[in-house]
Design goal:
This is ATP-dependent DNA helicase RecG. Pfam families: DEAD, Helicase_C, RecG_dom3_C, RecG_wedge. The chain is α/β, with parallel strands linked by helices. It has 24 helices and 24 strands. The strands form 5 sheets. Strands 8-9-6-5-4-7-10 form a 7-stranded mixed sheet. A 7-stranded parallel sheet has the order 14-15-13-16-17-12-18, sandwiched between helices. A hairpin with a 2-residue loop joins β8 (154-157) and β9 (160-164). α10 (305-318) packs parallel to α11 and α19 runs antiparallel to α21. The two termini are 33 Å apart.
């Protein structure tokens, strides 16, 4: 942490773009000095905080600097100018304010179980105020006969309305900083409240902080750009977001701060993209090669228009001389794997190796089997190139590969004899070396950590490979714009012709017997069934159906040996999980009882029924992914959503949407609107250059698009942010330089 006014002057490390010539309208980056910013001061130096409170604020809310506190915004506001009558209070109300006189006060109970009860009265009725903490101090502060402004949340005890730990102030107290009568309600925890950092105390600390920093807060958006985007000044926005004088000022402040977050997020991502496209050379692959042509012509079906379009985009990237970094989105069953294999054959046709990395062994085996079928028409001549001559090799590398197989694979990759390899995390182990890796395909990439994916980048020893990341999880456009803002995005938005839709049905517990009879009929016809549960073991706090009891119920309703049931969940070892999944995939089990671990992985064309227990527990995108496990063959398929008879209005809306559409992107958009973006992409989300404190990817899509358009216009006119007018933007971006991983290089 940095003490106030004791900053060291150091050379900026944020050098963007080429070395600049000295021009009157530009800045010399080699001489740019990182001037001190008061907002980087450690929060412990704010009067009223100190080391102990600073440590608690850091641990509980992540507040370590002045900036962190100023950018911790209220999540709602209470109009403190409104005083209610006691007789009008309801226990369902949020925070309210009354003006009342203390009639009695008494301490009830002894020692740790004691509480202070203060009875107050106005002209309409009486109310008890209850304090469990700081009893001695509150007892000495409150005097019978005195009148107070009381602020708190009504609650009920023994059928009577009361308030627990309200705030009390004399009517003459100055309660409204900066003329604002609206009090912000800030995020908090029990530990903060117990340490005396109540909402009132937090608000006072923010007020003191703003008083110290107001004249020193620098503008981070150029005046011309701010005027063009109708933004109030940064100082005014920060003041109004904490202490709004009126609703109009609050809305203006919210707009400015939301735009600021989204704009710098997009500016950073687009800058990474610009740097990669101009600074990162790629392997030039001028031809497609005979292997691609032979496989393409031998396909027993036509590619969809969307598949052809995506292959053209990938082909253009790979022959451009720039490194490809492309995200391929496609719904379950849209044909992404075929696109990946054909792309890999382009690399092979240009004398390079390609790898396809999958998150599970089952999925890796499926990809490998698909690969062998697609490559069956090839002859040795189709694999010929100038470096390795005649002959070719494909391989599968997983955690289950035997030592002898591993040695042969390692030797084949180093020599170049293995041209295509499919694998799991085993591909990124240190001992795996490629002779000339030209393309890395990463399937369901969000299942891999950032550090794991980055290892593929380092396996070439020179020019980086082209990278194609794939996901079957439909990502709303606004979210993809953020999570993958520095990548090119391709979408396969149509399914292959002839694929039958999955009929989705909502059923409650009263229909269970009929559902079981339906399953028996499907099994009798030679089909297989998934039954998915949201929990592994019973939870005392949640009464949703769980795998433990569900498995017992299923085996009782479908007894062995007439019916064969396998079980898969996340608590099993990888070996046990793979064994049970394999048994189901090979038809040695009729029913697979599982948690959502099978959302990605097992592909069983013979499975025609997906039963999802406690379906209200799942989000729309997850329900859609689970539904995609069936309908992969030529038979009619069904998804049965089992719920309790009573479910919330929001859950009912999700279930109804599932029954009305199979469009994954429509469902993803609705899911984000209802549930928020959440942590959809794990480490990718947490690694973004700007953490969103006030903007919402789900609710502020229109503003996000405007911010991205504005950022693109700025970079089009000044790619290196060299103009003096753009110095505030350059300086703001420099704050993210050290803490952000460049995802364009590790996707």
């Amino acid at each position: 942490m940095t003490k106030p006014h004791k900053f060291s002057r150091k050379k900026s490390i944020f050098a963007i773009g080429p070395r600049l010539k000295s021009r009157p309208d530009t800045i010399n980056t080699d001489k740019t000095i990182a001037m001190p910013d008061i907002l980087d001061t450690g929060i412990q130096f704010l009067p009223g905080v100190g080391p102990r409170r600073a440590a608690l604020l850091g641990k509980e809310l992540g507040i370590e600097t002045y900036r962190d506190m100023l950018y911790t915004f209220p999540f709602r506001y209470v109009d403190r100018s409104n005083v209610m009558n006691i007789a009008d209070l309801e226990p369902t109300m949020a925070y309210v304010q009354i003006k009342a006189t203390v009639t009695t006060k008494k301490v009830i109970g002894e020692r740790r179980k004691s509480r202070l009860v203060v009875t107050v009265r106005d002209g309409t009725g009486s109310l008890d105020l209850v304090f469990f903490q700081g009893i001695k101090w509150m007892d000495g502060k409150i005097r019978a006969g005195d009148t107070y402004i009381i602020f708190g949340k009504p609650s009920v005890f023994n059928g009577e309305i009361n308030m627990v730990h309200p705030e009390l102030e004399p009517p003459t107290a100055k309660s409204f900083p900066y003329g604002s009568s609206m009090t912000g309600v800030y995020p908090s925890t029990e530990k903060l409240k117990n340490a005396g950092i109540t909402n009132k105390v937090f608000s006072k600390l923010v007020s003191a902080l703003y008083g110290i920093t107001e004249k020193l807060i620098e503008e981070n958006i150029p005046p011309g750009l701010a005027a063009k985007c109708s933004l109030v000044p940064r100082r005014e926005a920060l003041k109004s977001i904490h202490f709004p004088p009126d609703m109009a000022s609050l809305h203006s402040a919210e707009y400015r701060l939301k735009f600021e977050e989204l704009f710098f997020l997009q500016l950073s991502l687009l800058k990474q993209r610009y740097n990669r496209m101009h600074d990162t050379a790629g392997i030039k692959m001028p031809s497609v090669g005979p292997a691609f042509n032979t496989c393409y012509k031998a396909l027993p079906f036509d590619l969809t228009g969307a598949q052809k379009k995506v292959i053209r985009e990938i082909r253009d990237d790979m022959k451009s001389g720039r490194q490809m970094n492309r995200l391929l989105q496609g719904d379950v069953g849209s044909g992404k794997t075929l696109v990946a294999v054909l792309s890999a054959l382009i690399a092979v046709g240009n004398g390079y190796q390609a790898c396809i990395m999958a998150p599970t062994e089952v999925l890796a085996v499926q990809h490998f089997n698909s690969l062998k079928k697609l490559l069956a028409p090839l002859s040795p001549d189709d694999w010929t190139d100038n470096d390795s001559g005649r002959g070719f090799g494909i391989a599968l590398l997983t955690g289950s590969s035997k030592a002898r197989q591993r040695r042969m694979i390692d030797e084949g990759l180093r020599s170049g004899k293995i041209r295509l390899i499919v694998g799991t995390h085993a591909l990124i182990e240190d001992n795996v070396e490629f002779r000339a890796l030209g393309l890395a395909v990463i399937d369901e990439q969000h299942r891999f950590g950032v550090a794991q994916r980055s290892k593929l980048w380092n396996k070439t020893g020179g020019t980086p490979p082209h990278v194609l990341v794939m996901t079957a999880t439909p990502i709303p456009r606004t979210l993809a714009m953020t999570l993958y803002g520095d990548l090119e995005v391709s979408v396969i938005d149509e399914l292959p012709p002839g694929r039958k839709p999955v009929r989705t049905i909502h059923a409650t517990e009263t229909k269970r017997a009929a559902m079981y009879n339906f399953i028996r009929g499907q099994i009798a016809a030679g089909r297989q069934v998934f039954i998915v549960y949201p929990l592994i073991f019973e939870s005392e706090k949640m009464d949703y159906a769980n795998l433990e009891k569900g498995y017992e119920a299923v085996t009782e309703a479908f007894p062995f040996p007439r019916y064969r049931t396998a079980i898969v969940h996340g608590k099993q070892s990888s070996e046990e999980k793979s064994r049970n999944m394999k048994a189901f995939a090979e038809g040695r089990a009729d029913i697979l009882v599982a948690t959502s671990v099978i959302e990605v992985g097992v592909d069983v064309p013979n499975a025609t029924v997906m039963v999802i227990e406690s379906a209200e527990r799942f989000g729309l995108s997850q329900l859609h992914q689970l539904r995609g496990r069936v309908g992969r063959g030529s038979q009619d398929s069904y998804c049965i959503l089992m719920t309790d008879f009573r479910i919330s209005r929001e859950s009912k809306k999700r279930i109804d949407l599932m029954c009305s559409t199979e469009d994954g992107f429509t469902l993803a958009e609705e899911d984000m609107k209802m549930r928020g973006p959440g942590d959809i992409e794990g480490t990718m989300q947490s690694g973004l250059p700007v953490q969103l404190k006030i903007a919402s990817l789900g609710k502020d899509g229109e503003l996000l698009e405007f911010a991205r358009k504005t950022a693109r216009e700025v970079l089009s006119a000044d790619p290196g942010l060299e103009l003096k007018a753009n110095f505030p933007l350059r300086k703001e971006l420099s704050r993210f330089r050290d803490s952000v991983t460049d995802y364009s290089k590790i996707s």
